[in-house]
Specification:
Length: 465
């Protein structure tokens, strides 16, 4: 048996978002998720929208006690722009939202749980999407910064870790390339402009944060980093992986962490005639916005090969430069669309951050092992669900993280997705990730065996394999 011990003061907890846990209860405005479900409920698994969620809005005290029982010393969630801000043009706040978020933060802090607050988790206010096109517009960039400043001013004395965006590439992919987020457009040039505008919004918010000089607070970004592995070691396959890394990882990682816009990326965008509208002043804002930490979300690797078939779409996507590939020798999760399991990717990500991004302090902001409710099974005689499959895989990933830390990777925490099974966009409750099962009929939180294992890990910083 091998024992793995993590550093002292390591952050242990979970990640979630406001939309997926608070839902639409008593909100000042609609988000695009409320709007899209109202317009097209058929796009959502079993027709379930964000009206059916964990009800954190009403049950936050109970949930914080469950966090405490599992040994959490930290928890990441998001404020909802459409909840906090009543008037988007003036940044006038909704008093009920201010009261709720203050109470929620106070409850966590009183129970020894460090709140880490993300300002944007895929949830553009519907009014701004319909009126201006969301992040298609630089007007909305400035309105986002107004919202961010208001949040900093209201809650900066309570929140030590601020995050501008969670996975900023996902609204680009989902809303403008692959049709799994509203507004469901397929336009490569518009996708690039949205991505650029999000980077600009992030940078402006970072500058505004530093200008406020909040005591003991830091600001960062959470990116989903997906290493690209090749079919073979051929020059063509390696080039395909290089393109995938450039377009899916470095396109956000370099500007937001290294404060550099890759010249190769500019060349690709120019070649494809999809250069975004920029100004020299904006580029200066982006390349001078210093984050203090990075969050990394990881679920599955990306496998690619050189393009063999003709590219058929009539608009740009990154797949112009490669084809996706299924590893015939890979391990796959039978409970989540047969996605590949590759724990070593955690080590590769950590070493990349160490060697190429200044070894910036970072934490594993999301890692999740999906199962469906049938596979998890029913509670045993003690009322606990046996999801040992999840624990076994989590151990494998943490072994790789521990190895990287031993080699100098500057990782300061691990947050699992997620605390309680939550509503997950168009997939609704198709997949379960939580330490607790959410009973959709009663709202009860049912413990899982993996949560009991995590409790010991969080309290001791040690696990055995």
């Amino acid at each position: 048996m091998t024992t793995y011990t993590f550093p002292e003061n390591f952050l242990w907890g979970a990640a979630a978002s406001g939309t997926q846990t608070e839902g639409a209860t008593n909100k000042a405005n609609e988000s695009i998720w409320d709007l899209w479900h109202r317009l097209s409920p058929d796009r959502f698994y079993n027709g379930i929208g964000s009206q059916l969620v964990n009800d954190t809005y009403s049950r936050y005290k109970e949930d914080v006690q469950l966090m405490k029982q599992l040994g959490f010393n930290s928890f990441r969630t998001s404020f909802q722009w459409s909840r906090l801000i009543k008037d988007f043009e003036t940044a006038e706040v909704c008093p009920d939202a201010v009261e709720f978020y203050n109470n929620y933060l106070d409850e966590m802090i009183a129970n020894g749980i460090e709140p880490m607050i993300n300002l944007y988790h895929f949830d553009m206010p519907a009014e701004l999407q319909e009126k201006y096109g969301g992040f298609e517009s630089k007007k909305v960039v400035d309105l986002y910064v107004k919202y961010a400043v208001k949040a900093f001013e209201l809650f900066g004395h309570k929140v030590k870790y601020w995050i501008t965006f969670n996975e900023p590439i996902v609204p680009v992919e989902g809303g403008y390339l692959y049709d799994f987020h509203y507004p469901c457009k397929k336009d490569g040039k518009l996708a690039v402009q949205v991505g650029y505008n999000i980077i600009l919004a992030h940078a402006k918010a970072v500058h505004a944060f530093h200008k406020l000089a909040l005591k003991d607070s830091k600001i960062g970004i959470v990116l989903n980093l997906t290493p690209s592995y090749t079919r073979s070691d051929s020059e063509e396959d390696n080039k395909a992986a290089w393109y995938a890394d450039l377009l899916f990882n470095r396109s956000f990682l370099d500007p937001m962490v290294k404060n550099q816009i890759p010249q190769e990326l500019c060349e690709v965008l120019n070649e494809q005639r999809i250069i975004p509208e920029t100004t020299a002043e904006e580029i200066e804002v982006i390349t001078s916005a210093k984050v203090q930490f990075l969050g990394v979300n990881y679920y599955v690797p990306r496998r690619v090969k050189a393009r063999e078939a003709k590219y058929e779409l009539d608009y740009f996507t990154p797949e112009v430069y490669f084809e996706n590939y299924i590893n015939p020798d890979g391990r796959f999760n039978p409970y989540r669309d047969n996605n590949e399991i590759l724990p070593k990717a955690i080590y590769d990500i950590a070493i990349n951050v160490k060697e190429n991004y200044g070894n910036i302090p970072w934490f594993l902001a999301e890692i999740g092992i999906a199962m469906d409710i049938v596979s998890e099974g029913e509670p045993d005689g003690n009322g606990v669900i046996d999801d040992s499959f999840r624990t076994d895989l989590m151990k494998e990933h943490l072994v790789q993280l521990h190895k990287a830390i031993e080699e100098g990777a500057n990782c300061f925490g691990v947050h699992q997705w997620t605390f309680i099974d939550n509503w997950s966009w168009i997939n609704s409750f198709k997949r379960r990730y939580g330490f607790f099962r959410l009973d959709l009929e009663t709202g009860n939180r049912i413990p899982k065996k993996h949560g009991l294992w995590f409790k010991d890990l969080a309290k001791t910083g040690t696990f055995h394999e």
